[in-house]
Amino acid sequence: MYKLYTIYYLMETEPKPSKQSQSQTQSYKSDALRVFLNIDTTDDVYSSFFTERQFKYYSDSSRCGMGMKQAKEQLQRIATYRKEYSASAKGCELCTDTKKQHSIRCIGKGNHDAILYMSPGNAMESSVYHVCKHMLREVDTCFDLTDSFVWVMNFKNYSYEHIVPNTTITYHFAKWLNDCLHERIRKIVMICPPKYFYPVIYLAKSLVKNEISDKLEIIHTPELVDNILSTYLTPEQIKLTQLL
Ligand SMILES: [Zn+2]
Description:
Elements: H1 3-12, H2 22-37, H3 44-47, H4 52-58, H5 61-64, H6 68-84, E1 104-109, E2 114-118, H7 128-145, E3 149-154, H8 163-181, E4 185-191, H9 198-207, H10 210-213, E5 216-219, H11 225-229, H12 235-243
Parallel strand pairs: 2-3, 3-4, 4-5
Antiparallel strand pairs: 1-2
Helix pairs in contact: 8-9
Bound molecules: zinc ion.
């Protein structure tokens, strides 16, 4: 355990808060992390991610697998990325409970990890800014549940016209994975991508670190989908994905 954990430990030894002051304590912890990262803002963009759970994760080398210097550098990259996409607890302003423009969602904890499910063929909107912002919020939801996640992409309803916007988004996702998420992705599962999507897959593999591309699993046979998904998803989640 290294120095960042010591900071956390010191904060943990603060007097136990009353219920009324819990939000103040959360703010206090976030403020301490901002000081540690030299972030001089109280913007909601940061506080929605730098929760106590995230703080514990990055301050514990046995969980995040990084030394203190690496963890600090990664947290600074995360802060920069979140600022770029104005990420906040409010999430994507284009999607409402009844009308979804994007098709990316955390569908809960699977057999071991949280499951991020995406069906890009069903997306109504594909601007980089809004897709990345939406994605950040859903991944935050995954990290509220577990330290790592499995990313499932289902290519039903995927047509050739999705290729151009999805290629642009691929560049942004690849950088984000490399800079901020490389150790937290357990698996990337693609369900029956069409042949014309393969150039995007090759592009993505060339952009991400080997440790990420090694986690890619492509299911080619529709009959095997449920069987392979059962490694990661609960039976209820598999039923849910058939409806999404
Ligand atoms: Zn959205």
